[in-house]
Amino acid sequence: MSENNGTSFLKSLLNAWSWLFLILILGFFELYAQMETGNTFLFRVYTLQSIAVAASQILLLALGLTLVIVAGHIDLSIAFTTGFSAVVMALVIRFFGPEGGWLIVILALGVGLLAAIVVGLINGWLVAFINVPSFIGTLGTYGIARGVALIVAGGATVSIRSDEAREIGNGIILGFPIPVLIAAAVAIVFSYLLTHTKFGVHTYALGANRASVERAGVDVKKHLVILFVLSALTAGIGGLIYTGRFSAGAANAGEPILLYAVAAVFIGGASLTGGQGTVVGTVIGAIIIAVIQFGLVFSGLPPYWQFVAVGLVIIVAVVVDQSRDRLTGVSS
Amino acid sequence: MSENNGTSFLKSLLNAWSWLFLILILGFFELYAQMETGNTFLFRVYTLQSIAVAASQILLLALGLTLVIVAGHIDLSIAFTTGFSAVVMALVIRFFGPEGGWLIVILALGVGLLAAIVVGLINGWLVAFINVPSFIGTLGTYGIARGVALIVAGGATVSIRSDEAREIGNGIILGFPIPVLIAAAVAIVFSYLLTHTKFGVHTYALGANRASVERAGVDVKKHLVILFVLSALTAGIGGLIYTGRFSAGAANAGEPILLYAVAAVFIGGASLTGGQGTVVGTVIGAIIIAVIQFGLVFSGLPPYWQFVAVGLVIIVAVVVDQSRDRLTGVSS
Amino acid sequence: MTPLLSAKGLKKRFGGNEAVKDVTFDVNEGECVVLAGDNGAGKSTVIKMISGVYTPTEGEVHFDGGRLTGKSAEAIRTAGIETIYQDLALADNLDPGLNLYLGREKTRRILGLPFLAREEMRRDAVNVLQSLGIVVPDPTAPVREMSGGQRQAIAIARAIHWQAKLVIMDEPTAALGVPEQREVMALIERMKSKGVGIILISHNLPDIFAAADRIIVLARGVVAGERRPSETNDEEIVRMMMGATL
Amino acid sequence: MTPLLSAKGLKKRFGGNEAVKDVTFDVNEGECVVLAGDNGAGKSTVIKMISGVYTPTEGEVHFDGGRLTGKSAEAIRTAGIETIYQDLALADNLDPGLNLYLGREKTRRILGLPFLAREEMRRDAVNVLQSLGIVVPDPTAPVREMSGGQRQAIAIARAIHWQAKLVIMDEPTAALGVPEQREVMALIERMKSKGVGIILISHNLPDIFAAADRIIVLARGVVAGERRPSETNDEEIVRMMMGATL
Amino acid sequence: QEDITITLVPGLTTDAFYITMNRGAQAAAEALGITVDFQGAEEFDPVLQTPVLDAVIARQPDAILIAPTDSVQMIEPLRRAHDAGIPVITVDTFIGDGNYQDGAGDGDFPISYIASDNIAGGRMAARFMAEQIGGEGKVYVSNVRPGISTTDQREEGFKAEMAENYPDVEVLETQYNENDASLAASQFQAVLARNPDIAGVFGANLFSALGAGNGVEGAQKSEDVTVIAFDAPKSIVDNISSGVVDAAIAQHPAEIGYYGVVTAYAVLTGQSVPTSIGTGFTVIDADNVNDEDIAKFIYSE
Ligand SMILES: Nc1ncnc2c1ncn2[C@@H]1O[C@H](COP(=O)(O)OP(=O)(O)OP(=O)(O)O)[C@@H](O)[C@H]1O
Ligand SMILES: Nc1ncnc2c1ncn2[C@@H]1O[C@H](COP(=O)(O)OP(=O)(O)OP(=O)(O)O)[C@@H](O)[C@H]1O
Ligand SMILES: O[C@@H]1[C@@H](O)[C@H](O)OC[C@H]1O
Ligand SMILES: [Mg+2]
Ligand SMILES: [Mg+2]
């Protein structure tokens, strides 16, 4: 109880603002849909499922990235770690043929994740041991993962036929698409990691002041390696889901969503300089992005105006967030 | 003289390392060319011109960005500020028809730059006055500039017929392509700004510790607005050159170059947290990128392997830079 | 005589916490007013409301005939108030010369264009620091690489280098060596004799008694009392500091 | 009796500048050794070579029978050395409780999973700070929002909260109020009586004389001399500090 | 039926080809008195196209015309439209094997496929190139990036035609330019530096061709090097007039859009329609670029 007085209670209340903003735009689209088409926007299983699946594909890149950004670093390579692991998974399935069954699919998932972990280890090693700034180090592995994915795939995509893989990407359990369940599980684990474990505290401290953790006797190099492996791992899971959803491993699977993933993390409250950001914030950020993408198409706004609208909404999302600080006089 | 003793002399000597690395890769390609094809790689006006033009297109996005990054911020919107100003210039020329002559082209250049400045002002206002984190604010204007460029263009590209515009993009003066001369002029001005003026000192101080400049009585908000306007302005110049080179203003002109521009700034020694980086470094960074892009094609490496090689070279460029610190024992 | 500076009813609230309230005091020309008080009493908060870092939640500050409250840090500095902050507020990536002149850099024209006079500023920094008894081994190095006391001396140098009418010093000698502390105390005397007003924050009782014309004691954000050094002693001051806490 | 800690021939070079050289000294159990010296003399550099922040350019450190040099900061802390750094080294975005326990956080198992015991750590922090005479208005706030003295107290709390065999304190009282300074001095006495070895860096002569069993004076990076407080006086110590400079 | 609404989902919204296709679709819509919406993603990519498609399905249009961004990967997302009872017609690109309604293969459910065959277009470019360079010499393909099915197919057709019918033409490694004309220009110059005898470049889309043309011009090789462009927006046509580009393979996107809408209308009004409609190509070069009847094949931008 004692910590729930004063600022802290106020804070948790105010952290609800991004939720509020999300509810606001949902309300807006619902109203619009009712007036314009007479149909509901929100209260359809199909709409909710579609938005949730789109958000979860963004989220799987954004979750690991959140940890890396909180620690004051960045990971660009996830753009192609996703593709690399998607391609590797597809190759394993193709190698054993469509009759492989669950055993082979599970093997393929494992090998796909291993591929991602290798990228993460290289990133961690570069940043922690060779002191390469993470922006440049992971831009390097971005190119490497891309090239290797294309080389092993022997082209851009490896298509497969596997009902089991398809089930992972498109199955629905109790109304919840499997990709959404997986993303939710990863989000819960990462939220736990970041808020309730030593590892999480050290990640925040690292972002604020590397010396503080180093001098406190934390093995910062090891910590960094783990961070980049986690980031690669979630991106890799994103790749596996991709392969399942689309029955093809594509080397480019993650590239077009990188920017959205980074945006989700920043909308969620992270900062370039590190030390800030939460998993819950990133989840809301990813959902906001998925909702406006869906909602704008749904509303029938012409495509070029949608670019403008997405830009505006992103800015407004953060301005709303800022004004809460101003209202409560936290800044000077 | 007094400041050229001790560390400082050593420093300036060591800053030559990135030059050295550049010379190294040039040497490598030259050697390769001599052995493999019997031709020279480097000692052809034509090769040099071609690399320089490619570098200058990257550089025009990277120069303004360098200032912004030194100040601890980022500007993603340049990806489409370039396209916006390219499109606007093309529209003005098209409006007056192919017989407009220099007067119209100059008018078009002016209006194109004005368009860019508007984007810069919005960025500056968002970051300085509304306290929107620059990553999100400029991601928002990225979308807006993109949408507006496409809307005003009424499509993706605006083609023009203007010998004057074509001259700006493709002319050569005393062996120097005009785009290269323009980029060089901007680089010299920005290098002067960053190293020899109050504005430059405040930019570095801002990146290290915003409070230090604020409390020293510098108008930080105004400073930020100027920074973002400068960044938009150089990106806009890049757009004008693009329109000249290709006789078409394309809304997407800058988008594929953004990542290379950011990479050039970081290869040049800047850091995510601000307070570091130089114009000279960025110039070398951009040249390194242009050289490897050219050199790898020249060397006949298969395309997928080129992705891998670019990644490796980027990493090695920075590792070389790091090892100099290690050799001189600057780090603990 | 109207006071050089007068603060009236200053209050500052951070979120739910009122760090400072009802703080009213004057500073006259050539006078050194010491703000004393326990840790967290609100001393730094008070001086930041004067120097323009914080906007007071309530109250206002007048200086040299004008109203300061609401003005920018820039305007307040131009009006003639220099401040040494407790956290120093240095630009760690710049050398001592540039830190000394930050915001007021010296330039030299070459072909009509202004160029920073880096060496000159550096030389000046070395001289000012020397007058405080501080030698930095490499004046071209960024201040990040300097020792705690060297850094503090640079912050002091920055404030005293300008012809200010009022100098605010938040624990200026905390990191300084013995001889340097003495230099700063002597400096305060010299500035007073030139008519400069001084607000000094210090936890060092001998220094407080040596420098102060008046001592204002803050306790838990409010003024617990005001004394002239000749009217009081160490014990009373310490008791006043604790006063509100008991 | 073998000393608890012995430093032999320590040297540290930064770029072209030799900040410290030939520094040799011992610390015994229950002994307080003061490192005194002017600003920039090399005191902080010496203790960072002991605590593992810097690797010495030359020389080595032995502690409690083992060699420290080359070990990580982590290993050195585990071996039983706690350090209060001059720059505090706090994680500004965390609350006092997490800063107190940084690297050694308390957890509690719920359904077999470890969860940080935030409230418990916070409560402990409030208590340790209270024992130093410090009250923070909101212990859930990040330490970024604390006053200079509150921050320093958190750094002190962090070092004394653990059962260390040697505590290194780099100007621990610089930002503290008068009563808090007294608390820290008393604390040093209590630790000594429990057999803890202490290295104290301070510019405050009365404190130096009160706490020290031996005073080692550094001047311009080298040991200018070593004295027991009973054998010397303020003036001699100050002269030794300046010694090499003259 | 006044209130028929059809949505056209292009491969990407910012491309002259699809903008022109939309123009044709709107012309048909006007003629038929129905509504055609245009909704798509910013890049030619299945991950981006899928959420757009999902939202389009939520609006429940009467039919969907789509240029699927991948033949395999878009099967599942399009099945959702089919399952929702919305007829699907693919334009420009196809899913599965492209043969619909024959009971074979995964992606069999679309009603019809209306396009100019990109592989055939690539072959046409190769034939024209071979003629121009006299049946021998070195050429290469300047392409966007691996993984875009349309441009990949043009490259495939180009290479296949050369391999089968022009043994003396050597096709060098493809160069990928990320849709950056500036990079495409520098790549041409690098290829030239290595192969001073380079005879031709096939630019597989607008920016690849614009860039290659600029590179050729910069090297003052316009006389010796043949540049063939795929697609014919105005900027390419201007470059043909000025001699920088030698020829463009123009698809007929407006026709595709027009027939697409008409086919959908036919389906919705209960007529039977063919499962595939091929639209042609027109080669634009210096000889015919100023002809009256060529103008209609120039894309809007
Ligand atoms: N930015 C801030 N946000 C929230 N609380 C703050 C902030 N700055 C100061 N405080 C609180 O206000 C109170 C007064 O702080 P202030 O820094 O003025 O103390 P001080 O008298 O200068 O103490 P010290 O002697 O330790 O420097 C403290 O309890 C502190 O925690
Ligand atoms: N990281 C560094 N890089 C370069 N020079 C350094 C570095 N750290 C310290 N120095 C230099 O080494 C010398 C000794 O510094 P040190 O911090 O040890 O002094 P100190 O005795 O602790 O002084 P103070 O009492 O002011 O804290 C100083 O001249 C300082 O400028
Ligand atoms: O220009 C191309 C267009 O013609 C094709 O159909 O889709 C991909 C585009 O890049
Ligand atoms: Mg204070
Ligand atoms: Mg020190």
Automatic annotation (TrEMBL), chains A, B:
The keyword Ribonucleoprotein does not apply. Keywords: Cell inner membrane, Cell membrane, Membrane, Transmembrane, Transmembrane helix, Transport. InterPro entries: ABC_transp_permease. It holds the Pfam family BPD_transp_2. It is found in: Cell membrane. It is a multi-pass membrane protein. It comes from the Bacteria. The keyword Cell inner membrane applies. The chain crosses the membrane at residues 12-33, 45-69, 76-96, 102-127, 139-160, 172-194, 224-244, 256-272, 279-298, 304-320. The complex is composed of two ATP-binding proteins (LsrA), two transmembrane proteins (LsrC and LsrD) and a solute-binding protein (LsrB). Part of the ABC transporter complex LsrABCD involved in autoinducer 2 (AI-2) import. Probably responsible for the translocation of the substrate across the membrane. This is Autoinducer 2 import system permease protein LsrD. It comes from Nitratireductor thuwali.
TrEMBL record, chains C, D:
Belongs to the ABC transporter superfamily. GO terms for molecular function: ATP binding. This is Galactose/methyl galactoside import ATP-binding protein MglA. InterPro entries: AAA+_ATPase (IPR003593), ABC_carbohydrate_import_ATPase (IPR050107), ABC_transporter-like_ATP-bd (IPR003439), ABC_transporter-like_CS (IPR017871), P-loop_NTPase (IPR027417). Keywords: ATP-binding, Nucleotide-binding. Residues 5-245 form the ABC transporter domain. It holds the Pfam family ABC_tran. CDD domains: ABC_Carb_Monos_I.
